[in-house]
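tool_call: predict_structure(chain=1)
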Amino acid sequence: MSEELNTLIKLQKIDSLIISLKQKLEIIPLEIKKLEEKIQEIDKQFENEKKKIINLEKNKKEKEREIEDINEKIKKLKEKTSQIKTNKEYQALLKEIELIEENLKKEEENLLLILYNLDETQKNLNEVKSNLELKKKEIDEQKKELEKERNIINQKIEALKEDRKKLINELPPEFYEEYRELMKKHKGLAVVEVKNFICQGCFLHIPPQLYVEIKINQSIYHCPQCGRFLYYKPEEKLEEAQVQS
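tool_result:
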């Protein structure tokens, strides 16, 4: 294989790896954002449960005051019974007391329902709070791992850039310039393999004569359609056979 072609293949491998690592870097902030959104969602759930508690406490106090007022009213009505002179008035008063007592019973049942809901909501709140703390801890750990991964990737990219500089210095300037143009034109893929007569960049069927010349790998060839640098990679079996022979 020609020295220039070999250098171009190595350069392409490094650039492909850099592109792949940069794509991973772009994903990391999105993953961190998703984790933070999960925290916000749990915080929101916690705040909603707290609001429910506050409202139920308010309802409880109002209901207790209401029951207290009804009890006071019943007490006053019962005190009036000794002052009543006729049986008709007495019966009417008893009826009134009976109706108010029925209402009292209904309101006491409502109070019990509020107390039950308050108890259940408090349990939910405790559960959400416990889950919140646990989840926050897990997410913090995940964020740290992502930050660590980001640092490692940045270090890899910097190391690859150093290797890249060395390879560029080995290439004739005109080849590197052409390589750069092809990288821009084909979104990061300037050097491709030819496999079974097919350019792996644009999938053009390479003419037989050109294919034979590319297989020798002794010069620089381009795809007639996409213009990419082409190279041939021998099959492993063939390579083994060649080694054995």
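agent: The mean pLDDT is 91. Proceeding to next step.
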